[in-house]
Amino acid sequence: MRLLVLGGIRSGKSEVAESLVADAERVRYVATAPEHPGGLPDEAWSARLTRHRARRPAGWSTEEVGTEPDRLADLLHGAKPEDVLLVDDLGGWLTAMFDAAGDWADPSALDSRITALGDAVRACPAALLVLVAPEVGLAVVPTTQAGRTFADANGLLNQRVAAASDGVAMVVAGEVTWLRGGSEVGHAGGRFVAAPAPAPFEFSGTVAGAVLSTADSGETLSFQPGMELPLPDESTAAEAGERLLTLRLNGAGLGGLVPVVRFAGGTQGRPDPRPWQRPRVLVLRGDRTGGFAAGDSAAAADRRLEDVVEGTGTLAVLAATAGASVQAIDCPEAGPAELHDALDDGSVDAALTLGWRLADAAANEGVDLLVLAACGAGSDAAAAAIVAVLTGGEPAAMLGRVVDASGFVNDAAWIRKVAAVRDARHRIRARSREPHTVLSMLGGGDIAVATGILLGAASRRLPVMIDGPVGIAAGLVARDYGAQTRHWLLMADHGENPTVKLGADVLGVTPFLQLKLALGEGGASLVALPLVNTALTVAAATPPREPVVEPEDGLTEQERIEAEIQRVVADSPTAEMPFVKPSWEA
Question: Which residues pair with 521 in a beta bridge?
Fold first, then answer.
């Protein structure tokens, strides 16, 4: 956990920061202020440092970086997972950096160093990192150049570190106000205590009584952007489309289903693609807490998942109609992304690995098409947050109305969802948009597993049908791991869901139906699957038209038409009529 404590001079910010780590057995105290600022003795400054040192418990270790401010980022990167660090304060670090640079005239001179320190805070593996920083932006603009330079750089530094922190507190006159993350920090015995970091998530799934778990899935795989994955055969897809023009169909053809035949031709690698005989539905369930889940019911998600496992409910009926097997994956609950990251890095790796292996296992069992389905409290908000971050969309326009279990619209819950998504975007505004980071910041278990499924399916040349927000969010993230993944996606209908519409447009996936279905994620795909298989059956079974017999005169059709026109003109009684000028030309 990373906490930033802000405050003015003599506000009590150092005392609050010290109370946050008071229960730790060992604390590494990182002092940033030099003993002699500017290289000159200062009795008042030395007395201040002496008071700070006297306040620290004897068991704390102290590391001085005042004369070597560049060491601070290295210390944060090199921390151990069991470490508890207290950095006091960033104002001293900033002063030392300007002194080392020898230039107090340019407030942007340290921009790159400030950004690097923010990245170091974000990447710090310590169990608890508490940083103290002065807040000078509430005072009047300094009258000196050096004062203005410090104030400007201090404001940027606080923004960068706050963006990398899980909690931010403001201390005024000894009173603490949590600007963000206060629910993660408790108060016991008159002291503030940082809550322990959550344990890494474990993922498990069930199908026909069997259980899948990350504990049994072997070594965790590594996922990095730039993955090389196969592409569908574009030449075969083109042949499949051209072949449709030669068939002896009753009427003009398959209309809006032509792109589906082309897609099937490319993914199957044959110009006469066959119907998908062994489809499988993967149902992902992952709940959230906090504002993302406002108005949603975890109990309702439980019922939907139980219906899937027991073979009842809408999704199970649709799957049976489409001849698809069903596999349910119960993902663990994710925390409130508006306050802190939804997943830690280890959980993201575990989720991606599980998704990859689910797709790999399906391919090994002869499954020829995957259908992605999802149910979970807050999954629509998490997907909207990811789509908004990756596309620049506006959350208020992307989140649909919240309808509670009784069928009534809950506008108050919708407002909470929108506010939570906006808060989450604000929290991560300065962080990387690298796909692993996006999943950690916002994703949750279901979207991370879905991303792994899409990557694993593409690696095995296995097409995937998507139609909902979890699928489209996973598609955008998977694209950033491997751009080829989007070419293996087939969308039946976006159901007028604004998140899905925007994400599909950016991803370049076009729905082939517009039924405006709202049967839950995966429902539209299962409704469309029998129709798709019918179209593929017709395309594969219909014989070609009989070839056109060339006439014996050897003329082409166009030459024959021109010859006929000349003959008609020559035989016309008006062919030899003299030309008469119009009256206006006489």
Answer: 374
How much is the pLDDT for 19? Answer: 84
Tokens found for residue 139: 């005072």
Q: Which of 476, 447, 282, 429 is nearest to 348 (CA)?
A: 447
User: In the beta sheet, which residues pair with residue 330?
Assistant: 204, 285
**Rounded to an integer, what distance in angstroms lies between the CA atom of residue 141 and that of residue 19?**
32
Q: What are the contacts of 44-50 at 24+ separation with CB within 8 A?
A: none
Which residue among 15, 64, 521, 550 is the active-site one? 521
Query: Torsion-angle region of residue 407: left (phi > 0), alpha (psi -120 to 50) or beta?
Result: left
The three-state secondary structure class of 46 is: helix
pLDDT digits (tens, 9 = 90+) for 424-460: 888 888 888 899 999 999 988 899 999 999 999 999 9
Distance CA(2)–CA(469), nearest Å, equals 31
Average pLDDT over the chain, rounded to an integer? 82
Which of the four pLDDT bands, split at 50, 70 and 90, describes residue 264?
Answer: very high
Q: Which residue is listed with tokens 């994956």?
A: 329
Is residue 562 part of the annotated active site? The answer reads no
Q: Please, is 118 exposed, middle or buried when counting C-beta atoms within 10 Å of its C-beta (0-12, 13-18, 19+)?
A: buried
